[in-house]
Amino acid sequence: MSLDPLRLGFVPLLDMAPLAVAHEMGFAAEEGIALELTRASSWSMLRDMLVFGQVEAAQMLAPVPIAMAMGLGGAAARLDILQVLSVNGDVIGLSQRLAARMRAAGYGFDFHDARAARAALIQAADGPLRIGIPFPFSTHAELVSYWLAGAALDHELTTIPPPQMVEALARGEIDAFCVGEPWGSVAVDAGVGTLVLPSRAIWAVAPEKVLAVRHDWSEANPALTGRLMRAVWRAARWLHQTGNRGVAADILARPDYVNAPVEVLERALSGNMVISPAGDLRQVPGMIRFFEGAASFPWRSQAAWFAAQMADRFHLDPAASIAAASAICRTDLYRRNLRSAGADLPGASEKLEGSLHHPTAVASEQGQMILSPDAFFDSRVFDLLAPR
């Protein structure tokens, strides 16, 4: 059978796993697609590769297509969010100097309580904090800004590509970082950093990466779009199986993918986190998720939360920003293309973000599905439909 070629871009991170697995485990070939995976060294490079047609689809920071829809960032093209590739999977890490000051003050690094971590960080900081993030429009930027909003802590966000975060911390160019795994764990293993929080401690179900395409490409290639979505969705379902984590880590460790130690990747996939060079261990259920709890569904309400946050930071109209974000979440394509693959589909395309503190049953096309907790650390609830 001849296969249709399709170029797919990625940045070397754990959360590109569904793309590598779709290629390596044959899910793309089953859909008649010959994937050509192309590595980018930064998010700006990957965004431009997608916008200018050097790739047809890409792993993308969830806020990037939203920011573009809001007119931010200067790239004039519409990107559609086809599905979520991963939720959670980021960590916040500190320099050894800051971590030592927090320990000396009695902080226990429970790797869970975002309020306590923030209070300890404020007490330990002896000047403005330089925090590395991978891109100005990123889950990292929004979570850190939300976490530190109103706190008595001067800080600035500095853009650093993920694979360079460890070196930047080692050279003293930053005091802290928020980055996707495995680069936080690599900093720990290198002896230059200590992890203080997983991103899920700030928002329990933060969408991290999405599968993005240009709107004009998806309109011109509806069948190929559907085949790509099914291949990636089946890869995510495969990743959900606990017994497949070792194979996934072996694949991702290759130089042409993430190029990181297998054991570090496996730790992050399983949530068995080593948070300090001294070997302190913490268990993090749901450290990164690809499938369960409707993780891959492109909820309009999640995109709307990002839009509201960015509208506040960049002084834009919140209602218009939320409308723009909702329009690019292709829940219609998700329902149309993944129903035939066996995906259970939620009855609604938006929900109250932050309202679930426990696994919760909701109506679905197949009867009932279980949504994962989605609480924010400060217990706020975001309602997409609230007047603004």
TrEMBL record:
What Pfam families does its record include? NMT1_2
The organism's superkingdom is given as Bacteria
Provide this UniProt record's keywords sorted from A to Z. ATP-binding, Cell inner membrane, Cell membrane, Membrane, Nucleotide-binding, Transport
**Is Transport one of the keywords UniProt gives this record?**
yes
* InterPro entries tied to this protein: NrtA/CpmA_ABC-bd_dom
What is the annotated localization of this protein? Endomembrane system
Signal peptide span:
none
Query: Which GO CC terms are listed, alphabetically?
Result: endomembrane system
Concerning CDD domains, the annotation shows:
PBP2_NrtA_CpmA_like
Its primary localisation, in coarse terms, equals: membrane
Keyword check for ATP-binding:
yes
Q: Which GO terms describe its molecular function?
A: ATP binding
PANTHER family, alphabetized: ALIPHATIC SULFONATES-BINDING PROTEIN-RELATED, BLL4572 PROTEIN
Q: Know the name of this protein?
A: Nitrate transport ATP-binding protein
